[in-house]
Amino acid sequence: MAYHERLAERIRGYFKRRGGVDEKRMFGGLCFMLDGHLCCGIEKDRLMVRVMPDRYDALLKKPHAHKMDFTGKPLKSFLFISEAGYRTVSGLASWLDEAVECAKSKPPKKKKAKIFKKLAKEHRC
To answer: Is the pLDDT of residue 115 over 60?
Structure first.
């Protein structure tokens, strides 16, 4: 199991009525993109959330929140939430609300046409 499948189902349920949400496999887990921006994800049994930079320090002090650290250097604006922090419906929703706020603060990304990616690969000098 690369990621917690039950947590993925719960996150899908949260986003069910919201448009513009895509799933991508990243970081060895599953990420949820909102309007083209990384919003949240799952790595093993940890919830990953992207939060507003000005809220990062306050949210890091909450129980079950930890710095997201893959390479020895924490990624600012990203937090890992341990299972106890998202066990309840309200606990998960509060973290996902923070992640949605961050993603919505950015302008929607335009989707790139796949044909252009293919052409770029074929015509590299």
So the answer is: no
